[in-house]
Amino acid sequence: MDHINQTKLLLSYITFFFLVISTCRSSDTIAVFQNISDGETIVSANARFELGFFTPGNSKNRYLGIWFMNTSSQTVAWVANRETPLTDNSGVVKLDSQGNLTLVNGSGKVIWSSNSSVYGSNINLVAQLLDTGNLVVKNGNITNSDSYIWQSFDYPGDTFLSGMKLGKNFITGKETYMTSWRSDDDPSPGEYTLKFLMVKGKYQQVYIMRSSVIETRIGPFNGISFSGRSLLTPGPSYPPYVGYMIVSQNEMYFTTVSKYNTSTSFARTMITPNGKREISLLEFSKREWTTINSLPVDYCDNYGVCGPYGSCNIANSPYCGCLKGFEQKNSNETSVDNATSGCKRSIALDCGPGEGFLNFSSMKLPDTANAVYKNNMSLLDCEVACKNNCSCTAYANPNITPGGNGCLLWFGDLIDVRVYPQNGQDLYVRLAASELSDLKSSSHKKKGVIMGVSLSVAAVLTLSSILLAFYIRKKWKKRSDADIEGRPEKSLDKDYKSSSHQMGSAAVQLFSLLEVSQATDDFSADNKLGEGGFGPVYKGVLEGQVIAVKRLSKSSGQGLVEFENEVICIAKLQHRNLVKLLGYCIQGDEKMLIYEYMPNKSLDSFLFDESRKSLLDWPQRYHIIQGIARGLLYLHQDSRLKVVHRDLKAGNILLDRHMHPKISDFGLARMIKEDENESNTKRVVGTLGYIPPEYAIDGLYSVKSDIYSFGVLVLEIVSGKKNRSFVHEDHDDNLLGHAWRLYKQGRSVDLVDECLRASYSASEVVQSVHVGLLCVQHRVEDRPNTPTVVGMLGGEGSLPSSPKKPAFFAPESEINSTTSNLPLLSSSSFNGITLSQVDGR
Ligand code: ACK
């Protein structure tokens, strides 16, 4: 501290001595005050900051503010009365007996107040200017220095200092951000703000905005610095501070910790009246500010300047280009630099198996407003998560510090991407299979591996594959029309025949074993998708289309009848919530069903897998519940046939590229007559946990059997728990019993899957549990019919009757040991009814 400052501090001390509250700690005493009048100032303990009245630039107005000490020209860090200046020299600052810091003008009018009233006894009110530049009101009796009644750091102006927080408090909804001055002469809020995007579930980043328009984007914070922002220039006191991004349930904010104690300078960040974000250092020895980083600096810093999927590179001319695999959207736009419409994919995505990701290194990550953030995920998990969701366009690791993990998944357009060698990072962008192989081969070409003839070879290959595809199509058509090898010889399902439908008339194709074998690479283990109740399922490619082949094992329970049944049934049914059968193969002992491939596989592969369940958020789950209900409505009522599925379960719900649900596996389905309400069978089939009592005991099935299974499924989707294996630890209830108990206590929302606790719609959860419980009622007549279920889930009308105690209330173990009249729960025979347990999962 130099001599002049020591003198100044002493003066401040003398001026305010009679006002100072005696309980202050000795080192801070001089910065504590009760009143300041014009011409007087308060200096912080180590003479870093000064508080008092000032007049900016050429203005005639006066303001109460905090400025840095030891600067050759006055640098203001904070202003109290930004919008209500004093127009003469008459102001007084007071700390009143309620804890309000007020600025009163010459006529005694309060023109600014901290609005920080506190009530209570034993409060020793103190106002104090800290050495960090923070003006605080606190209870001097409390030694905890962080417990402030009010602090100026909560109300930043155009300057950010270490210790401030920029972000959002989710409890109060309060956002803290920086606002520029209107001009150098006028500290009132100007046009520019510097704001962190703080949205739960999204990843933070910074916008510089002019009113409501984004001018420049900084970030996201990658654990070290902001992605795509130039690094601070290393110097003697580098780095001047360390930044932290704090993310919790209640708040998200960015803060920094200054290193000024160990250095010879002090840093500040400000947003200037013309919208520049500047980081500067005050070097104590020089008393001058040096700007060490500013933004925007170049053309590429203009937000989204190259449009969606465009990439800006300041080293190129023109600056804008398209990411590899993309091309200019509007070829009429003469220069890419003026192309606001950006770029489009050269080859559209089809979510096929060969689709993958191209690594673009040294990139500023795209705008995270379109991204979802998942913590605790490795880069590999992140890739899997992106690949499994066909709407995911890119992924990246948000935290590049050693050991840092997490996953950023982009959905929709990639905006504001730039090449940034200095401080960029890896971005993995989804591209079509053929695009990737083209890029690979062109990179090989560059390496001299592929010679100049490759283009003509590709052209010849394309031409010959088109011809081949034509030929195969013709051949298949011929086959389905004629009686050839592989055609089923035996008769089909009786009902089907009697209704005079023929397999040949169904819109499914017949394939030979050879064709299916070639499509699946000879049923290779690599192509195996999993094992279903009746045998393995393989992935393959037929006629350029990705398929799933269900190969019925010889030992499986599904005989020719079930097989034919499934072919006929599903071939006749076309609905967006039913999986589409493309063809079949029957040759010798082999029976196979060929389906459209569902890239996101089955619902249970998400729902009951701890590492994947969080990928299924509540809106998706609710959408899935509604989709299954609509599929059921079609089966039960709207289709030409009245079909009871009889094996509705999570494993038989497949998810397409958009996570739309499709009911699959019609091997056990039965067509029933229009006027028929119930049918009887001696062979009870289905999956434990989903079978209703009347079917298990009396072999009676109806559309209400599917409604029961649907109810179980809804409760499983809400809770993420499998009905069959769930036993509540406190009272041994099974899932239905647990849901019922919570419902009775008015706590249906507590059933929701723990991984969804942060975000779900309580009303939709309550509604789903209500519907689920109605569907699993013991008595068939107490269960709603399918149109009612769809109506209730669509929010039409109020929910009807309250559910009663559901069927199979007690845990399975208990039922097994004590209830002999529920034979289905063991796989043995009872009254001539046998349960074929068909749970392959
Ligand atoms: O849960 P998953 O991965 O999805 O495992 C099962 C497995 O085969 C046995 O049923 C998967 N699977 C069945 N049909 C299809 C399909 N059409 N597309 C993709 N995967 C399927 C199912």
UniProtKB/TrEMBL annotation:
Residues 1-26 form the signal peptide. Keywords: ATP-binding, Disulfide bond, Glycoprotein, Kinase, Membrane, Nucleotide-binding, Serine/threonine-protein kinase, Signal, Transferase, Transmembrane, Transmembrane helix. Its EC number is 2.7.11.1. One of its GO terms (molecular function) is protein serine/threonine kinase activity. This is Receptor-like serine/threonine-protein kinase. GO terms for biological process: recognition of pollen. The chain crosses the membrane at residues 449-472. Residues 523-773 form the Protein kinase domain. Residues 351-432 form the Apple domain. Residues 793-812 are annotated as: Disordered. Residues 27-150 form the Bulb-type lectin domain. Pfam families: B_lectin, PAN_2, PK_Tyr_Ser-Thr, S_locus_glycop. It comes from Tagetes erecta (African marigold). CDD domains: B_lectin, EGF_CA, PAN_AP_plant, STKc_IRAK. Belongs to the protein kinase superfamily. Ser/Thr protein kinase family. It catalyses: L-seryl-[protein] + ATP = O-phospho-L-seryl-[protein] + ADP + H(+); L-threonyl-[protein] + ATP = O-phospho-L-threonyl-[protein] + ADP + H(+).
